[in-house]
Prior knowledge:
By secondary structure, chain A is mainly α. Chain A contains 13 helices and 2 strands. Chain A has a domain at 66-241: Orthogonal Bundle (MetI-like fold). Chain A has a two-stranded antiparallel sheet with strand order 1-2. The relative contact order of chain A is 0.13. The mean pLDDT of chain A is 88. With 433 residues, chain B is an alpha/beta fold. Chain B folds into 2 domains: 2-135 and 297-359, CATH 3.40.190.10; 137-296 and 377-430, CATH 3.40.190.10. Chain B contains 19 helices and 10 strands. In chain B, helix 18 packs antiparallel against helix 19 (413-430). Chain B is globular. The two termini of chain B are 21 Å apart. In chain B, 60% of the residues are buried. Chain C has 276 residues and is mainly alpha-helical. Chain C is built from 14 helices and no strands. Chain C is globular and about 70 Å long.
Amino acid sequence: MATQHSRSAARLMMAPAVTLLLGWMLIPLSMTLFFSFRKYLPMRPDIAQEWVGFDNYVRFVTSSSFWPSIQATLIIVGGVLAITVVLGIALALLLSQEMWGRGIVRVLVIAPFFVMPTVTALLWKNMFMDPVNGFFAHILKAVGLTPIEFLSQHTLLSLIVIVAWQWLPFATLILLTATQSLDAEQLEAAEMDGAPWVSRFLWIMLPHLARAITVVILIQTIFLLGIFAEILVTTQGAFGSRTLTYLIYQRVLESQNVGLGSAGGVYAIILANIVAIFLMRIVGKNLDT
Amino acid sequence: MSFKNALRAATALTLITAGGAYAETITIATVNNGDMIRMQGYTDDFTAKTGHEVEWVTLEENVLRQRVTTDISTKGGQFDIMTIGMYETPIWGANGWLVPLDDLSAEYDAADILPAMAGGLSYEGTLYAAPFYGESSMVMYRTDLMEKAGMGMPEAPTWSFIREAAAAMTDRDNDINGICLRGKAGWGEGGAFITAMSNSFGARWFDMDWKAQFDTKPWHDTLTFFKGMMDESGPAGYATNGFNENLSLFQQGKCGMWIDATVAASFVTNPDESTVADSVGFALAPDNGLGKRSNWLWAWALAIPAGTAKEDAAKQFIEWATSKDYIELVAANEGWANVPPGARTSLYENPNYKDIPFAKMTLKSILSADPLHPTVDPVPYVGIQFAAIPEFAGIATEVSQEFSAAYAGQQTVEEALAKAQALTTDAMEAAGY
Amino acid sequence: MARAVTPRRKALNTFAAWLIGLIIFFPILWIFVLSFKTEGNAILPPLDVLRAPWTFESYGIVQDRSDYFKHFGNSVILAFGSTLLGLIIAVPAAWAMAFVPGKRTKDILMWMLSTKMLPAVGVLYPIYLMFIKLGLLDSRIGLVIVLMLINLPIIVWMLYTYFREIPGEILEAARMDGATLREEILYVLTPMALPGMASTVLLNVILAWNEAFWTLNLTAAKAAPLTAFIASYSSPEGLFYAKLSAASVMAIAPILIMGWFSQKQLVRGLTFGAVK
């Protein structure tokens, strides 16, 4: 099928997508690289833009905020992935069972995915986690307990819950799609043979879902490494919630140090690629074509 | 770069004067505060008077700052008028990024702008932004709770009195906190409060050589006092409370005292919004007897970015929105308590406004603030709750995050101050001070 | 997995699923409730909130204050415009990758996905400067292009996985019959891949609708979508739960309703090649 003719046609057909993405990647990337080697302070036109070598890179990593920000990033991404994958599998298996009103339940479960990240963050921060007027505070007070200060005392956990709520539907959807092709006969046969639920889950369902889990982890990681609105709205980076993305935002927009922020951007790209390669190595086998 | 700007501004100016008067549509970026929302409601009055249309971009404060700062520093030209504050104006003015407002009409009466406001919105004597409303900060307290506690609020209280009164008013069983103050991270939130407070404790951000001062005793005293008082008598989760959170607490009757922006006075005394409207008293922000009080000075002002093609229409809008007529217009429709305060001398001379309970204390607070000499010891910067240098916003946001973490009990005051000192020193070195 | 189950088991499943579903959905339901209360009532304890009178007041205020339909219109144009443009560019690419796979096909696919990892905040200045040069600031076309580029890797990937499930023999048969490449894609491939395309469109409309960094930073008055509309209701002065709830409901309702009607499509289509 792959004749010389169709090969060149294929190349031609891929050209627009590849060229556009190459441009989208290379132009900002090269500008970021360019800025990262320069002293660039937009608010200080009195200081000339000049080459500073690796100054920005050194300054960015030696700042006391750098390692904590990497840590916060990994905790948030890891926490959200763990919650969404585990609960996603549970939900997918539950939702694939026979029940009344399955369509409506599905709608209820996937609804959070349709909510804008800004709205998600606003509604959790104010209407639920606020220690005075929030829903949880009212409930705790009603039963005689002290309201919990979620965002200042349990900052990362609260953020993980907020983001996980938003991404759980996505994981559930993909896993649910995958459960639909589970071999019912095989499961039934195993059940007849007296295999307990745990081993049916471990030896039949989980292997079947492996590819879907890989996809969930891969796609969510890409989105989660860049979460920003949720932090901007809730804590603005306070209480140890400053992720790498947020640190870059602070350097570029709050401190108006574009050179330093660009160096941070380059680090973020490197981190993203390390994570991607790591993912590919560990779980990528599942994605073979 | 600034020469280029001046040139560009000059060209734009000639183009416009040659163009004559015709209807334009100007785009205004503004913050979602009550007075600005009200102003949007009166846009029709402006259009009827001048023929110009207005398109509003109303954003939450942080988003607005990010948006307008990006636009002005890249010469994006997205807005014909930007709503900015006392912090941005002198810096942007010095960079040549704003159109000088030195040719406003005679009816506008620029001399009527309160000198403290005009001073803070100028660079080298030229006005770069016209104040829409101005504020200082003061103590707002519940007269009924004060009475119940058997105390009397002096007009100029000290910090030790405030702490004592807060403890006396606190009634945890009935959900009443003696005092509500900003602890929220962000230079314009908790950062502004603690900086203004530190001035009265004899602290300062930088010494005359731009060396960070967080390792000094006055800062340690300020933070220890603040945290001690708030842990005793403050609301739960005060480390995340900003202006808005405290306003809503106070309106619900959950605060005995609140030290914050003078503009809040009209919200807490408005019976439509506040459950405690008829029992609020006012006093000057506290001091420690060192000669500086802990009140700040701020104005939300309208400025025109250099290079806009609609400078004339923009100026007409600024003259309309910050005029005496606009104040009259709001007063006629919504009462004198709701006019934008703190911008004009004539407002405080107006007999109609004198009856407003908070008018006198607002004016006194504004007049007692001196952005040119904000601290006990001399400093190289201008500004009370900020230092008007471009690096401040970034540094102060991070510093206030360390402070908030200390309020929340995640680190000690000493740790927070040590980190603040380190990161400020680092950032100032990076900026070449 | 459909097999006969006992009514007891079915009832149990139903109970568990509904309970979990309602817990997950509850935050959305709650802002819906709050949006019909006055500001003063919206901060009361939950039971008092429910007992308080219902009112449309907040919706009135929000509609009065900001032009909802302008923002809504922009959101529609941006979300659907970017998705359609993305499809036009992605379909040929995905076709080529699926039916003429080379040694590097998978690498190209992974590389495309990796472009999504560029942190947006880090490149705001470069993109902003570029937009100024091109005169694209606050224009719908500029944002349509940016959103398309952001989602293009996902679109290509999704289409690629759907196309791969189509047996090559059918296409070959069409070619034997003398169909040109264009006809092959339009009349043979597209109808077969239609369900997959539908879910691709859905997912990308959702992603574009909810994108809140570029849509906020590259717009002013003209092209601002609902994400900017929301930004004027977050943390204003005074009580704001009711108004924020009303604005939030207005911003998410259209996409939520669309999602509800198409949930079957989403459940069937979101495979990302995870199912063989």
